[in-house]
């Protein structure tokens, strides 16, 4: 049992902490708006991911595997949404202040996970590894561990973004940062799209 829990934790940490569209959006948002204003996005992304994981584990995966075209459509829609978010970040005004309202809140974090090809692949892989056919106990344990680890991992990305704010002292530096983060986000979406098709 201990080895299974360890494997669940390692898998969750690896998938949550590794760079991806959600993590890059969190860094960009936190650098622009600060940790506190980015935290609703972190919460939405974490809760959205766990609900996706539970939904797939409780039966949605059977529908997805029965209709492979659905997964391809979700990958296309997700990549398009992530590229849109990347464009919004890259083209954001370089004079953002902490007093502005973030463009990425709870709803955006939640939606981004449901349209994120990396999230779908992580959920499907995790369910394949840790779920059992006749009982929901492993799925519940895995989801609970993943919730804690995902929340902590995304919060770390938000803290890193907030630390970057100290270096973004001029509009030109902010503009360069926005373009770099937006471009990385678009590249992530393109890569995930290519690997999921």
Question: Could you walk me through the main structural features you see in this protein, from its secondary elements to its overall organization?
Answer:
Pfam families: LysE. The chain crosses the membrane at residues 41-61, 73-90, 139-164, 176-194. InterPro entries: LeuE-type (IPR001123). This is Cysteine/O-acetylserine efflux protein. It is a multi-pass membrane protein. The protein has 197 residues and is mainly α. It has one domain (2-196). Helices cover 82% and strands 0% of the residues. The chain has helices at residues 2-17, 21-33, 35-66, 68-90, 106-114, 117-130, 137-164, 171-196. The chain is globular, with a radius of gyration of 17 Å. The model is unreliable at 98-102 (pLDDT under 50).
Domain tally: 1
Helix and strand sequence? HHHHHHHH
Secondary-structure-derived class = mainly alpha
Distance between the termini: 35 Å
Main location: membrane
GO biological process, one term: cysteine export across plasma membrane
Membrane topology: Multi-pass membrane protein
Pfam families: LysE
List the helices and strands and how they pair.
Layout: H1 2-17, H2 21-33, H3 35-66, H4 68-90, H5 106-114, H6 117-130, H7 137-164, H8 171-196
Helix pairs in contact: 1-7, 2-3, 2-4, 2-7, 2-8, 3-5, 3-6, 3-7, 4-8
Membrane topology: Multi-pass membrane protein
Transmembrane segments: 41-61, 73-90, 139-164, 176-194
Protein name: Cysteine/O-acetylserine efflux protein
């Amino acid at each position: 049992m201990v080895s299974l829990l360890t494997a669940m934790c390692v898998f969750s940490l690896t998938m949550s902490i590794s760079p991806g569209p959600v993590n890059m959006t969190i860094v960009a948002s936190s650098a622009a708006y600060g940790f506190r204003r980015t935290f609703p996005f972190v919460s939405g992304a974490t809760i959205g991911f766990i609900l996706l994981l539970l939904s797939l584990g409780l039966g949605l995966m059977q529908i997805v595997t029965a209709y492979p075209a659905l997964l391809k459509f979700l990958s296309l829609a997700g990549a398009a949404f992530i590229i849109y978010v990347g464009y919004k970040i890259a083209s954001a005004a370089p004079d953002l202040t902490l007093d502005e309202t973030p463009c990425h809140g709870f709803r955006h974090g939640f939606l981004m996970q449901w349209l994120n090809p990396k999230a779908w692949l992580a959920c499907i892989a995790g369910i394949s590894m840790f779920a059992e056919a006749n009982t929901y106990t492993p799925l519940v344990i895995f989801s609970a561990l993943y919730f804690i680890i995902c929340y902590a991992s995304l919060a770390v990305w938000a803290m890193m973004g907030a630390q970057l704010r100290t270096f973004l002292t001029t509009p030109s530096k902010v503009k360069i940062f926005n373009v770099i983060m937006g471009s990385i986000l678009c590249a992530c979406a393109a890569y995930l799209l290519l690997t999921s098709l």
